[in-house]
Amino acid sequence: MTIDAVSKEFDVSKDTLRYWERIGLLPKIKRNSSGYRDYSEMDMNWVFYIKVLRNAGMSIEALFEFVELFRSEDNTNDYRKQLLIEQRDLLLKEVEERQKTISYLSYKIDHFEDHTLNYENEKLVYHAKDEKGD
Amino acid sequence: MTIDAVSKEFDVSKDTLRYWERIGLLPKIKRNSSGYRDYSEMDMNWVFYIKVLRNAGMSIEALFEFVELFRSEDNTNDYRKQLLIEQRDLLLKEVEERQKTISYLSYKIDHFEDHTLNYENEKLVYHAKDEKGD
DNA sequence: ACTTGCCTTGAAGTGGACTTAAAGGTTTAG
DNA sequence: CTAAACCTTTAAGTCCACTTCAAGGCAAGT
């Protein structure tokens, strides 16, 4: 598959695909007789994988660990699975943080009329455990 | 309150506090006789507010709109409230995206044994709940 | 053959959000 | 009084993740 097709298939710019390959996130892509990239099925899987995890906010740095672990022979599946679990839990924590801000904003919206900014009160609201307290 | 105290109270570096003020996210902070910053209660409210929204991933750009709207006289509360709602909904969407990746990772974890990377299948998994697809 | 447009590379540039440096004034402990 | 430990400013530097540029090779239409 050509770089243009892959770019369209996954909605990732051609430059980004070349960049990911250059820094080693993607493996060296095979070339056709003209030196153009020809992506294999496996390459596409990696593009999908990397895109999903990048979209979820995983850093390039973290993705290196990921990619390395899944490519190297001398790692057990248990270890790989553990990494997946770790990354999921990391994402879960991040989502929890976002949720806190969302309910804080909801509080501000619901109590808009009596709102005068007061960080001491709002700190309490912000850090209140997920109880729909009014 | 001194810059050092504010920095500690909100866990935001002094440099960042000066930076936020310089670019206009924070108002001009009053100075004491030595020219040192002396943060008022209102200033602290803004620090809290900005910190919460930054932590939630809101860009400086978006925060400008926010701050301006809440500072200017000629805007109705309705308009301000609308902005809060918009920002909350934006955050909600982002969280939904993250959730999708979380359940995708959960799927990968649960089906680890029979896993061979295959983006066509996994795309389906990833977009399972989200009928629209791309 | 020419033109248009896609592909290649390495290097340099961009944008966002700080962070650090340099040079100096102020406060406080001994 | 002196030195450490604060504070001030403006300007330059850093980090991340691309993105754009420059110079050229390859391919398809007319």
From TrEMBL, chains A, B:
Signal peptide: none annotated. Residues 1-69 form the HTH merR-type domain. Pfam families: MerR_1. Keywords: DNA-binding. InterPro entries: DNA-bd_dom_put_sf, MerR-type_HTH_dom, MerR_fam. SUPFAM superfamilies: Putative DNA-binding domain. This is MerR family transcriptional regulator. It comes from Holzapfeliella saturejae. The lineage of its organism: Bacteria, Bacillati, Bacillota, Bacilli, Lactobacillales.
